[in-house]
Design the sequence.
């Protein structure tokens, strides 16, 4: 015998029964309120269209349903923190900054030791007292000093003191071949064409115009009437800093190179304002031109002196050192004047 499953009366059936009871009883009746709880509702008896829109809030939904809804809305649980990204490209350089102010000048360094030309031997020239004739000759070879001083009681003086040649006065010494007041080195007729280096350092402590330590090369055998006034061909070939564009300032050290490109010399035997003015003081030329013009000229001495002239006035004080002389076939020699 099959068992019938009776379905509990619905809320509408209960209400209908109550109404029937009232109709049949007629007369007076008592109104009764019926309470319906969740146990009275059959699962699935309340359908979606029976619920008012918005009557069920999200907080009434279980956690899994809320999570599902969140996924469908594109909102999921927060994932773990990602690692650092790679380094981005370098940014563009900034604009150039303003130029900074110039720094102050540093203090002058101490003087270094005397230098030397490649292969140049150094010969100390000790103090020489008094004046006189050349003590010897060396034909341009190093070793024999062969120097002497000139100019005592001639309107000035020369001395090897304080590690240099000191020159005082503007006058001349007519008793010498060079006529200047200074230091001379004798040679025994060395051909002028063999000389291939001549330089020196100098400074002027008391300025007198362009006067400065000067070189005189006393020669014989120059052409009479061109570079000499004598049958013997005697003359002095002169290198003067003033003639080469230098106006010295006090206590400034200069280096004179008589073989530098453009270096000019003159002969005291070439008469200015004459048909042969080339090579005179008014029209100086390179030493190599004198070698060509005077092929028989030989050196009697080389002097470094005050460059004075007859009738000069005023005061002059200067110093010179590191005289370098070089000859073909021999090494250069640097003479440390005053030791």
Sequence:
């Amino acid at each position: 015998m099959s068992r019938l499953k009776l379905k509990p009366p619905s809320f509408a059936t209960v209400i209908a029964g109550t109404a029937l009871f009232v109709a049949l009883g007629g007369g007076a009746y008592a109104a009764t309120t019926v309470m319906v709880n969740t146990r009275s509702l059959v699962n699935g008896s309340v359908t979606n269209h029976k619920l008012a829109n918005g009557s069920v809030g999200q907080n009434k939904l279980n956690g899994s349903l809320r999570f599902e809804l969140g996924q469908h809305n594109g909102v999921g649980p927060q994932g773990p923190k990602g690692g650092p990204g790679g380094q981005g490209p370098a940014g563009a350089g900034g604009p150039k900054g303003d130029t900074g102010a110039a720094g102050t000048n540093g203090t002058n360094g101490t003087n270094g030791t005397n230098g030397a030309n490649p292969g140049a031997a150094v010969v100390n020239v000790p103090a020489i007292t008094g004046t006189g004739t050349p003590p010897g000759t060396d034909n341009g070879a190093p070793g024999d000093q062969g120097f002497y001083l000139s100019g005592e009681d001639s309107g000035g003086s020369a001395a090897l003191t304080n590690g240099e040649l000191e020159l005082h006065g503007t006058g001349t010494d007519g008793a010498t071949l060079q006529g200047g007041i200074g230091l001379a080195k004798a040679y025994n007729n060395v051909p002028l064409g063999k000389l291939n280096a001549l330089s020196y350092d100098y400074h002027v402590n008391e300025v007198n115009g362009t006067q400065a330590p000067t070189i005189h090369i006393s020669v014989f055998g120059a052409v009479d009437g061109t570079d000499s006034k004598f049958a013997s061909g005697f003359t002095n070939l002169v290198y003067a800093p003033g003639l080469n564009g230098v106006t010295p300032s006090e206590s400034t050290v200069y280096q004179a190179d008589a073989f530098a490109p453009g270096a000019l010399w003159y002969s005291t035997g070439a008469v200015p304002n004459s048909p042969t003015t080339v090579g005179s003081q008014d029209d100086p030329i390179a030493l190599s031109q004198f070698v060509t013009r005077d092929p028989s000229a030989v050196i009697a001495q080389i002097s470094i002196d005050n460059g004075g002239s007859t009738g000069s006035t005023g005061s002059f004080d200067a110093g010179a050192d590191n005289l370098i002389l070089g000859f073909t076939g021999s090494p250069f020699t640097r003479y440390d004047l005053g030791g």
Summary: The radius of gyration is 60 Å. Residues 125-337 form a domain with the Jelly Rolls fold (CATH 2.60.120).
